[in-house]
C-alpha cells in the first residue's frame, strides 16, 4: 500500500494484490459461497471453478470490498487521517493473478489559524430619533385600523375591501378556477389580472355588471394565456379603513397605559431592537474578519453536503407554504443544477466558518458542560411546549438521541467560541 497526500483535503491510496496474497484472499472469499445453490450439484459440493464462473461478479465485488476495507483502516490509522465522506474509487484493474486499486479519501484539512483575538470591526452607534418613534407609532395605529362597511349609496374606490361573487367566461364558456363567492378583494392591490380591479371601482353594493379583461401572455395556465375573458361580478359589500385616532383609549387597546406610555415604551422597544441588530451585525463582522484571516482549503465533499442541507431546508420552507420544489423550478425557470451552482459560494463560506470556529474551540479548549447541555435541552423543550424528559423520550423513540446531544453540544461550543471572539474584539 502506498499513501500519497494530493492536497490538504484529499489522500490517495494505491494498492496491489498479487501472487500468494491474492490467492489466499480469493480462497477466503470463496468460503462464503461454498453453500451456494447451483443446478446439478448438492449444496456444499459445488467445485470451486464452477462457483468462480457462476458468481464471478459477486466474488470480484467481495475481493474489492475486502481490500479497500483493510487498506482504508490502515491508511487512516497510520496517517492519522480524519475522513469526512465516503472514498472515491479512482482505478480498479484486475485479472486472475493481479488486482490494482487506487482510491481517494476526503479528509479534514490541517491549517494554521490566523489572528482571532483582538480583531477590529465596525459597530454601529444606535440612535433613535423622534421621527423613528413616530413612524413606529403610525404603524401601531395602522395595525389598529378597522374596516367599516360604507353606506349603500357610496361607490368603491382604491384601498376599499370589496366582497364579490364572480364567474369567468371565455368565448361564452365558463372555465375552471374562474368562479368564487364571497371573495374579499382590496382594490389597488393588483392581485387580479389586467384592469379587473379598476372596473370594480365606482360601483356600489348590490351592483351586478360585466368586467372585460385579457389574460397575460405568460399566464401560469396555458389554456388561458393571452385570451380575452368576461367576468360576471356582483358586489356584496364594500368596507373602508377607518383610521384610528391616537388617544389614550387606542393606547390602552394596544396594551399601553396612555399615549405617553405608548411613546416611551415604543422608544425603549426600538432601542432594544436596534441594539440587538447592531450587536448581531458586529458579531457577524468579527467572525467574518477572523475567518478571512485564516487560509484553509475547503473540502469539496463538505461543500456539497452543505449545499444539500441548504436546498433541503429551502424545500421544507416551500412545503410549509404548500409548494413543492419542482413547482418552484417551473415557476422560476431554475433547475436543481443552477440552484446548486448559485448556492456554492455561500456553502463554501459556511463550511470555512465552521472549520475555523472548530479549530479555535480546539485551540482554546472550549467545551460545553453536562449542566449547560441540560439547560439548553430545557430551553428547546420549552420552545416546543414540552417538558425536558418528554422531549428526550421523543428523541430516543426516534433513535436520534446521540445525534441530538452532539448537535446540542456543537451549538453551545460554537456560541461560546463566537462569544470569545466578540469579547476579545476591538471596535473600530
TrEMBL record:
Localization, UniProt: Cytoplasm
Residues forming coiled coils: 123-157
Swiss-Prot/TrEMBL catalytic activity: [protein]-peptidylproline (omega=180) = [protein]-peptidylproline (omega=0)
InterPro entries named in the record: PPIase_dom_sf, PPIase_FKBP_dom, Trig_fac, Trigger_fac_C, Trigger_fac_C_sf, Trigger_fac_ribosome-bd_bac, Trigger_fac_ribosome-bd_sf, Trigger_fact/SurA_dom_sf
Keywords associated with the record: Cell cycle, Cell division, Chaperone, Coiled coil, Cytoplasm, Isomerase, Rotamase
GO MF term set: peptidyl-prolyl cis-trans isomerase activity; protein folding chaperone; ribosome binding
EC number annotated for this UniProt entry: 5.2.1.8
Gene Ontology terms: cellular component: cytoplasm
Domain PPIase FKBP-type, first and last residues per copy: 159-227
One Pfam entry name: FKBP_C
Biological processes per GO annotation: 'de novo' cotranslational protein folding; cell division; protein transport; protein unfolding
UniProt-listed PANTHER family: TRIGGER FACTOR CHAPERONE AND PEPTIDYL-PROLYL CIS/TRANS ISOMERASE, TRIGGER FACTOR-LIKE PROTEIN TIG, CHLOROPLASTIC
Entry text on domains: Consists of 3 domains; the N-terminus binds the ribosome, the middle domain has PPIase activity, while the C-terminus has intrinsic chaperone activity on its own.
Family under the similarity heading: Belongs to the FKBP-type PPIase family. Tig subfamily.
Task of the protein: Involved in protein export. Acts as a chaperone by maintaining the newly synthesized protein in an open conformation. Functions as a peptidyl-prolyl cis-trans isomerase.
Name the UniProt record assigns to this protein: Trigger factor
Source organism of the structure: Leptotrichia shahii
Amino acid at each position: 500500500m502506498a499513501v500519497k497526500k494530493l492536497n490538504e483535503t484529499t489522500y490517495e491510496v494505491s494498492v496491489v494484490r498479487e501472487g500468494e496474497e491474492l490467492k489466499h484472499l480469493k480462497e477466503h472469499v470463496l468460503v462464503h459461497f461454498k453453500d451456494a445453490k447451483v443446478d446439478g450439484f448438492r449444496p456444499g459440493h459445488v467445485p470451486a471453478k464452477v462457483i468462480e464462473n457462476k458468481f464471478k461478479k459477486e466474488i470480484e465485488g467481495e475481493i474489492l470490498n475486502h481490500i479497500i476495507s483493510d487498506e482504508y483502516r490502515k491508511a487512516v490509522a497510520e496517517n492519522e487521517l480524519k475522513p469526512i465522506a465516503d472514498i472515491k474509487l479512482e482505478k480498479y484493474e484486475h485479472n486472475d493473478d493481479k488486482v490494482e486499486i487506487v482510491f481517494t479519501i476526503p479528509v479534514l484539512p490541517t491549517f494554521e489559524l490566523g489572528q482571532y483575538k483582538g480583531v477590529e470591526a465596525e459597530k454601529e452607534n444606535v440612535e433613535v430619533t423622534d421621527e423613528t418613534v413616530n413612524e413606529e407609532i403610525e404603524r401601531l395605529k395602522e395595525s389598529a385600523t378597522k374596516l367599516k362597511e360604507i353606506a349603500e349609496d357610496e361607490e368603491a374606490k382604491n384601498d376599499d375591501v370589496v366582497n364579490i361573487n364572480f364567474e369567468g367566461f371565455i368565448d361564452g364558456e365558463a372555465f375552471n378556477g374562474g368562479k368564487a363567492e364571497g371573495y374579499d378583494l382590496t382594490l389597488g392591490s393588483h392581485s387580479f389580472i389586467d384592469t379587473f380591479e379598476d372596473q370594480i371601482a365606482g360601483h356600489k353594493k348590490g351592483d351586478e355588471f360585466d368586467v372585460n379583461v385579457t389574460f397575460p401572455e405568460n399566464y401560469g395556465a396555458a389554456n388561458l394565456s393571452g385570451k380575452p375573458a368576461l367576468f360576471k361580478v356582483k358586489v356584496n359589500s364594500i368596507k373602508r379603513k377607518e383610521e384610528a385616532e391616537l388617544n389614550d383609549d387606542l393606547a390602552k387597546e394596544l396594551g399601553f397605559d396612555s399615549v405617553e406610555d405608548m411613546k416611551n415604551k415604543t422608544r425603549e422597544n426600538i432601542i432594544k431592537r436596534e441594539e440587538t441588530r447592531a450587536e448581531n451585525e458586529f458579531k457577524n463582522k468579527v467572525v467574518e474578519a477572523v475567518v478571512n484571516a485564516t487560509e484553509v482549503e475547503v473540502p469539496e465533499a463538505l461543500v456539497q453536503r452543505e449545499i444539500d442541507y441548504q436546498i433541503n431546508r429551502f424545500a421544507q420552507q416551500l412545503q410549509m407554504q404548500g409548494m413543492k420544489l419542482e413547482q418552484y423550478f417551473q415557476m422560476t425557470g431554475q433547475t436543481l443544477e443552477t440552484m446548486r451552482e448559485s448556492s456554492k459560494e455561500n456553502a463554501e463560506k459556511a463550511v470555512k466558518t465552521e472549520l475555523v470556529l472548530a479549530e479555535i474551540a480546539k485551540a482554546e479548549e472550549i467545551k460545553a458542560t453536562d449542566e449547560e447541555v441540560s439547560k439548553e435541552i430545557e430551553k428547546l423543550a420549552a420552545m416546543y411546549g414540552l417538558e425536558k424528559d418528554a422531549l428526550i423520550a421523543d428523541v430516543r423513540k426516534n433513535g436520534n438521541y446521540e445525534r441530538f446531544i452532539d448537535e446540542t453540544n456543537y451549538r453551545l461550543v460554537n456560541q461560546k467560541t463566537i462569544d470569545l471572539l466578540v469579547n476579545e474584539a476591538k471596535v473600530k
